[in-house]
Each structure stands twice: as structure tokens, then as C-alpha cells.
Design goal:
Chain B: InterPro entries: ApeI-like, HotDog_dom_sf. The complex is a heterodimer. Chain A is mainly beta. In chain A, 13% of the residues lie in helices and 40% in strands. Classes of the chains: A mainly beta, B mainly beta. Chains A and B meet through helix 2 and strand 3 of A and helix 1 and strand 3 of B.
Chain lengths: 159, 139
């Protein structure tokens, strides 16, 4: 089991945007399985009340994708971690295709993100996989593209 | 009260040009919830939050025939430029119905520096609202 110490040594994300709790299986350069527990104490739930319809408590699809991508990021940086976004090679989310949502996820669920490295071309990595919860597939990921670039690529261009 | 969302501020929908094209905008305030953790000391508006802007824009401008449709897929997204606190994100949206009866929304998101992302979302038609293609269904 790989916990927060190793995850925080690899990802620059922090509260409230560090969305990987634990890594339960990894084959470096190949695949990884990570867990993310969804809790009503995440800040996105703060404005909701007793009069909020149950479906509005669904975990935001965008964050489901983010959590999966961070799991891919742990795999991508397994052998060469750089948790500093201001220096060295940083990981950028280039895009995605074919991400399908099969049912809503609610607080209390433990998501199991399954990430597979499909291809690596120079500094660009392509991942695919799915997310399961309670034995059901809740999201399939056709492809996400992650690129490693010099940190300066993130700075606003100065005219 | 809106559904759970990583966005603290609201996506502002602009007056519609037609039923199938729409525009919205979102200003990234430095008080956005996600920024302290993305990243500490170097806030960048996350790419998935641009997808969330497109989703909220989509759900506020669903064509009348698509009422009740739910998000089925992010068909594609391409991130082309970073977005920072203080940026205004302009969202241009176009809707069309797919041959299968779903609804597809293409959004172009941009800031004052140029394109930020292209997002294509698919909404599943509500049950019982499939197009009359097969015609073999019993009444």
C-alpha cells in the first residue's frame, strides 16, 4: 500500500484538490490502481442543505475525471517524481476523449481508479482505464493525454 | 441552490442567439475554492474546471427538446492555454442532436490571451425521447 507520503512526493496538488487517497497496486510504466473516498466534507458540498435534491449531491463529474487523472499522474511520475510546479519538468493535462459516466457517485463511496499506460511518445503519455465503485463501473476513460513540459510553459507570456 | 460543483462563482449565461447556439462567461476570482490546492504558491485554474464551466453553460442552455437530458460523456476536450485567477473565460456553445437521439454540445473557451480549451459534451436524451428511427416499439 502506498499512502499520502508517497503520493504527496509525486503530485503538486494539495487540499482541496488532492484527490487521490491511496495507491493499492502499481506496475511502474504499465498500470496502477488508486482509491479515492468521496466525503461530504469536501468543500463542494458546503453550500448544500437539507432541501437540496439527492441527485445534486452527486460527486461532480469534473472532479471524478480530475481524481482519475491524478492517479494517472502518480503512475506517470513513479520513477521520476517532481512535486514542484515551479521547476523542472511539469505534468500538463493535454486533453481527453471518450470519457463516459455510467451512474452518479455519492458521498460515502470509495472509488477505485484503474489506470493503464497505453502509449508513450517522447514526453507525451496516453492513458486509458475506468473507475469502479461497489463492484460497478461508474466511469470509463477512453483516453487522456498528459504531457511533460518545462515549468516555464505554465507562466503567462509577458508581452 | 446549485448542485455540488468545484466552482464557487456562477457561470453567467448571456442572452441566447438562437436555440442551438449560446454564450456564457465565467470570471476566475482569486477566491475560487480550488486555487489554494492547485497549486500552492502558483494558482492555475484547473482544466477540469473549464470542463465544469462548459457543463454549467450547457445545462443552462439545453435546447427545449433536450429538457431532462443528463451528462453521459465528455466526448473530447483539448486544453490549449492556461487560465489564471483574474481571467474572464468566454464560452461559445453550439448544440446539435446526434443520429442516436442524444444531444451534443461543442464549446470553445477562451481568455484575453486566446483559446483555452475546446470541449465536446454528450447528453443522453431522457428515456422515452428516442428519435422515431426504428418504429418497432410498442405504444
Amino acid at each position: 500500500m502506498i499512502g499520502q507520503r508517497d503520493i504527496r512526493a509525486r503530485l503538486p496538488h494539495r487540499f482541496p484538490m488532492l484527490l487521490v487517497d491511496r495507491v493499492v497496486d502499481v506496475v511502474p510504466g504499465e498500470r496502477l490502481v488508486a482509491l479515492k473516498a468521496v466525503t461530504c466534507n469536501e468543500p463542494w458540498y458546503e453550500p448544500l442543505g437539507a432541501d437540496t435534491p439527492e441527485e445534486d449531491f452527486a460527486y461532480p463529474a469534473s472532479l471524478l475525471v480530475e481524481s482519475w487523472c491524478q492517479s494517472a499522474g502518480v503512475l506517470a511520475t513513479w520513477d521520476d517524481p517532481n512535486p514542484d510546479v515551479l521547476d523542472g519538468q511539469v505534468m500538463l493535462f493535454g486533453g481527453m476523449t471518450g470519457v463516459e459516466f455510467h451512474r452518479p457517485v455519492l458521498p460515502g463511496e470509495v472509488l477505485e481508479h484503474r489506470v493503464r499506460l497505453d502509449r508513450k511518445v517522447d514526453d507525451t503519455l496516453l492513458f486509458e482505464g475506468e473507475t469502479r465503485s461497489a463492484g460497478e463501473t461508474v466511469m470509463t476513460v477512453g483516453r487522456i493525454v498528459m504531457a511533460f513540459r518545462p515549468a516555464a510553459a505554465l507562466r503567462p507570456a509577458t508581452a | 441552490m446549485p448542485a455540488a460543483s468545484p466552482l464557487r462563482a456562477a457561470v453567467e449565461v448571456l442572452p441566447a442567439e438562437s436555440e442551438l447556439s449560446a454564450a456564457a462567461r465565467f470570471t476566475v476570482a482569486d477566491t475560487e475554492t480550488v486555487l489554494p490546492g492547485h497549486y500552492p504558491g502558483f494558482p492555475i485554474f484547473p482544466g477540469v474546471c473549464l470542463v465544469e464551466c462548459a457543463r454549467q453553460g450547457a445545462e443552462a442552455t439545453l435546447p427545449p427538446q433536450a429538457k431532462g437530458a443528463t451528462l453521459a460523456a465528455v466526448e473530447s476536450t483539448r486544453f490549449t492555454g492556461p487560465v489564471f485567477p483574474g481571467d474572464q473565460v468566454d464560452i461559445a456553445m453550439a448544440w446539435k442532436r446526434t443520429p442516436a437521439g442524444d444531444w451534443q454540445m461543442r464549446a470553445q473557451l477562451s481568455t484575453g490571451r486566446g483559446p483555452a480549451a475546446g470541449v465536446r459534451l454528450r447528453y443522453a436524451a431522457p428515456a422515452g425521447d428516442a428519435p422515431a428511427a426504428g418504429g418497432e416499439e410498442a405504444a
